[in-house]
Amino acid sequence: xxxxxxxxxxxxxxxxxxxxxxxxxxxxxxxxxxxxxxxxxxxxxxxxxxxxxxxxxxxxxxxxxxxxxxxxxxxxxxxxxxxxx
Length: 85
What we know:
mainly alpha, globular, Leucine-rich Repeat Variant, single chain
């Protein structure tokens, strides 16, 4: 998880694809850290990978997904996910 934190802090856009792939296979805290990292990277390519977590059964994942989308500052998605919060 430390590697994801470092990549997101450095703003390494090459990490976006790997992080989006990680969302497909990760569980628990690793999902949370991955959502946070994608939000920090600010690459709108991650939006389709993050959106399914807005409706996740676990509140913590819904919250982190909404924060990641908010961090992306992409206005087209902010109004769309509000009803899921």
